[in-house]
C-alpha cells in the first residue's frame, strides 16, 4: 500500500532536507515548498515549488492541488542574535507567515501538522534537564515566535480539529552520514559549523561568546542532537499523527550537555587542526545551560537515537564540509 503524500515547507533547508530524504527512503511521496532564501538550491528529493509562504494564495493553490495528508513546517528564521537585532523580520517570517500557512491549510482541509519548535521557548529554565511542562519564558524574539505559534496551534486544535506535534529542538548538528546533504547556510552561526569552517581556513579564528557563565568551564552548555536522529523523530511524529494520534509537544535532544570548550576540543581532535580561538563577550539571548528531558519522546515513540556521540556528529559534519569546499 502506497504511503501518503507529505508537504514540507523549508524542505531544502538543513533539517527539512534530511527529513525529506528520510521520508522518500521510507516510501512517502514528498512535496517541497521553499523560497531558497537560505540555501540557494533545491534538493534531489520530492516535487519542488519555489514559493514564499508570504504569498498565501500560491500556498493555498499548491495545497488544494497536491492534497497532502500532512504538512511538516520547517521554514523559519533561526538566528538568535539576529532576532534580537531585527525582531520584525522574525515576527514576520516565523509568526505571520506561519499564520498564512495555517490559514491556507484550513481552507484546503489539511488537518495534520508537524511543527519545528525550539528549546528557546524555555528561556533560562529553572529545571535541568528541562521537561516539556516547564514554563515557557523565552528571552529572545526567536524563542517568542516559536512559543507564539505553539499557542496558536493549541487554540486551533480545539477550534478546527487540527492535530499537531510541536518538536522542541535542542542544538541540531551533524550531516547526512552519506554526505549527500548537510548544513548549507549562506552565513552560518552554529558553533560546530563555524568551528569546522575555521579548521578549513575559511575563517581566521573561532569566537567563543562568553566565558563567565555559571558552568564548570565558564562556557554555555548545550544538548547536541544529530540531524538524522532528529529526522527520525519527525518520521515517528508523522506516523503517530497519521495513525490518529492527538496533539503533543515533545523535546528532541539526547539529555546530555556539552560545553562550548568541549565542542571546540572535539572539533580539533576530529579535524586534526589546532585553529585559533578568541574569547569574547556574551551574545544577547543565550541561556547558560539547555539540556532536554527526553523521556517523553522515548517512551511514546520508542525513539532510539543512532548517532548519540559528539565525535560522530562532528565526523559527519566534517565529511560534508570537505565535500562542499
Automatic annotation (TrEMBL):
It catalyses: UDP-alpha-D-glucose = UDP-alpha-D-galactose. It is an enzyme of class 5 (isomerase). Its cofactor is NAD(+). Its EC number is 5.1.3.2. The keyword Isomerase applies. Pfam families: Epimerase. One of its GO terms (biological process) is galactose catabolic process via UDP-galactose, Leloir pathway. CDD domains: UDP_G4E_1_SDR_e. The keyword NAD applies. GO terms for molecular function: UDP-glucose 4-epimerase activity. It comes from the Bacteria. Belongs to the NAD(P)-dependent epimerase/dehydratase family. Homodimer. This is UDP-glucose 4-epimerase. It comes from Thermodesulfobacterium commune DSM 2178.
Amino acid at each position: 500500500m502506497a504511503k501518503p503524500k507529505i508537504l514540507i515547507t523549508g524542505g531544502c533547508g538543513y533539517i527539512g532536507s534530511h527529513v525529506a530524504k528520510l521520508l522518500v527512503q521510507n516510501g512517502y511521496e514528498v512535496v517541497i515548498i521553499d523560497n531558497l532564501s537560505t540555501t540557494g538550491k533545491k534538493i534531489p528529493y520530492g516535487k519542488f515549488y519555489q514559493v514564499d509562504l508570504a504569498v498565501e494564495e500560491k500556498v493555498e493553490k499548491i495545497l488544494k492541488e497536491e492534497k497532502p495528508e500532512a504538512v511538516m513546517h520547517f521554514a523559519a528564521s533561526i538566528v538568535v542574535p539576529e532576532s534580537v537585532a531585527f525582531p520584525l523580520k522574525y515576527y514576520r517570517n516565523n509568526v505571520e507567515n506561519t499564520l498564512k500557512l495555517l490559514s491556507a491549510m484550513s481552507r484546503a482541509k489539511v488537518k495534520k501538522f508537524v511543527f519545528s519548535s525550539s528549546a528557546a521557548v524555555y528561556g533560562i529554565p529553572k529545571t535541568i534537564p528541562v521537561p516539556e511542562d516547564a514554563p515557557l519564558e523565552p528571552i529572545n524574539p526567536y524563542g517568542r515566535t516559536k512559543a507564539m505559534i505553539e499557542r496558536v496551534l493549541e487554540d486551533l486544535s480545539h477550534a478546527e480539529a487540527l492535530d499537531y506535534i510541536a518538536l522542541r529542538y535542542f542544538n541540531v548538528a551533524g550531516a547526512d552520514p552519506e554526505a549527500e546533504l548537510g548544513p548549507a547556510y549562506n552565513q552560518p552561526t552554529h558553533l560546530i559549523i563555524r568551528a569546522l569552517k575555521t579548521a578549513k581556513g575559511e575563517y581566521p579564528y573561532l569566537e567563543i561568546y562568553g566565558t563567565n557563565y555559571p558552568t564548570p568551564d565558564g562556557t554555555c552548555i548545550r544538548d547536541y542532537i544529530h540531524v538524522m536522529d532528529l529526522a527520525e523523530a519527525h518520521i515517528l511524529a508523522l506516523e503517530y499523527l497519521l495513525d490518529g494520534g492527538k496533539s503533543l509537544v515533545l523535546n528532541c535532544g539526547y539529555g546530555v550537555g556539552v560545553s562550548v570548550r568541549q565542542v571546540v576540543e572535539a572539533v580539533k581532535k576530529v579535524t586534526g587542526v589546532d585553529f585559533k580561538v578568541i574569547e569574547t563577550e556574551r551574545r544577547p539571548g543565550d541561556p547558560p545551560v539547555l539540556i532536554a528531558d527526553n523521556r517523553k519522546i522515548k517512551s511514546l515513540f520508542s525513539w532510539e537515537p543512532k548517532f548519540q556521540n559528539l565525535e560522530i556528529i562532528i565526523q559527519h559534519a566534517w565529511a560534508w564540509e570537505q565535500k562542499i569546499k
